[in-house]
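Much of our argument rests on the idea that a fold can be written as discrete symbols. The record that follows shows the chain in one-letter code together with its fold in token form.
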Amino acid sequence: MHAALRFIRYQFVVLLGLALAACAGPTIDSLREPVPEPLISRTELPGYGRIRYWGDDGDALTSAALNEIADQQRVDGNSSATRNFLAVSGGSSNGAFGAGLLAGWTQAGTRPEFSVVTGVSTGSLIAPFAFLGPSYDDRLTEAYTEISGEDVFRRRHVLRILGSVSAADNTPLRNLVARYVTDEMVADIARANSQGRRLLVGTTNLDAGRPVVWDIGAIAASRVPGRKKLIQEILVASSSIPGVFPPVNITVVADGRTFDEMHVDGGTSNQAFLFPSNFSVKMRDTRLQHQGVKRTLFLIRNGRAVPQYTMVNPRLSSIVGRSISTLIMSQGVGDLYRMYANAQRDGILFKAIWVPESFTMKEPAPFDPNFMRALYKVGFEMGRGGIPWAMQPP
């Protein structure tokens, strides 16, 4: 369950405030330069090459790009017939589960190196650590056991919500991301990228209403001076729950003109992802004459896979909050089934894990340190003791 949904009463005030502001002042569009619809698929980030694609468009994964990955793997001697993929879902403070699981998995001595790591929302914050391997476990552990809500958000005063785009100021989150996404991390990501491994993070382009997949390794490997800042912005955007945190505007160019795209939480589109559903790894293997590759998808869902009973108070905020939490739960389980079906189609072994039903602790406030440490411990013990992977969705 998204711990951030505990903001729901506050968010209701936000929505009311925004509605009033819309009647009394300029619209959001008048304060930015959004991309015109005819140009939405022709935008570029100045100085970068191919660093992103639509997350719902398998045609964007071109043969040239896939051949480049295969060539890098051969040069690096990493052309084995085994490929391990890791997808890390959203889940706000429940990301402590995934962090603990990865650290415990290292302790068990069975954690593989991942060819592709994907992340959404809190999963996008975990993904770089998971991608870089056990040497980053200590930093991952610190990020999910030594923080509190004050390190992630700062509530706005109710009167300041009028005309604002969010209930909270995300400056603490930006500072937190900047603390960990250092020059060293960027260099390490670039090095792994040169070996044919890929780190992918999902955001949602709010104007287009579509998922965007960012190739963080390609950004890190570029020579653009602002690459570290861009990676930080993407991770913040992927974690920016609409209404709670402000969206992230990313400057792009199309037809010689400058615009800005509005990006929010990747979980708005997908709670977890690997490849677009209309992209078939099996068809790609046939087309590129790559045979005999064994692939495994490990999916960490930072949340439960079955709903919990909750008595709902007959108040608007409670009803809306419970409805949204149910929607997110349903979407997340639906993503498990979607990814399972795609894995079955392409001959990929599917393994998923989620927060066990035996963990019943309630979180008193978003990003409560005691809650996160307890959940981290649950994940750690599961990882160290032999992860009970589910071979299909619940």
Summary: The longest helix spans residues 316-346. The radius of gyration is 21 Å. The CA atoms of residues 238 and 265 lie 4 Å apart.
